[in-house]
Amino acid sequence: KMGAFLAVTKGSVEPPAFIVLRYAGGPAKQAPVVLVGKGITFDTGGISLKPGEGMDEMKYDMCGAASVLGTLRAVAEMGLKQNVIAVVPTCENMPSGIATKPGDVVTSMSGQTIEILNTDAEGRLILCD
Questions:
Q1: What CATH architecture applies to the domain 3-128?
Q2: How far from each other are the two terminal CA atoms of the chain, in whole angstroms?
Q3: Which has fewest Cβ within 10 Å: 50, 53, 95, 123?
């Protein structure tokens, strides 16, 4: 159960995605390099709404995800002798009547409970699960 990740997604009508890609270039027993990238496709701040100025640039909150996916593609194109796993949680952080609110408590995948004090702290929530 990915309660932290899903808490961020609640305000959006767009479905979230949890992308896992594997490149097997090394021996089967070789430990992989794991790359994790934040994929907030649009970040309004949720209920803790960001100021309107600069809101158009919040589409760039997915650059961590783009970097991870681009790196995995480069690894594959170069044929590196290394196992690599890419983990990319993607979603929007939007306000709505069903969005997560400051003060809500969610349970992460590890079972740890988290009180959300500011819904604009979405990056750490989607990455912790």
A1: 3-Layer(aba) Sandwich (3.40)
A2: 9
A3: 53
Residue 43 scores a pLDDT above 90: yes
Domain residue spans of the chain: 3-128
C-alpha 125/C-alpha 4 separation (Å) is: 5
Instruction: Note if the pTM is more than 0.85.
Output: yes
Catalytic residues: 50, 124
Residues 21 and 83 sit within 8 Å (Cβ to Cβ):
no
Measured CA to CA, the distance from residue 77 to residue 75 in angstroms comes to 6
**In whole angstroms, how far apart are CA 19 and each of 57, 95, 104, 118?**
23, 24, 26, 26
Instruction: State whether residue 9 is helix, strand or coil.
Output: helix
Assign residue 111 a region (left: φ > 0; alpha: ψ between -120 and 50; beta: otherwise). Answer: left
pLDDT tens, position by position, 79-128: 999 999 999 999 999 999 999 999 999 999 999 999 999 999 999 999 99
Nearest-angstrom CA–CA distance, 29 and 14: 38
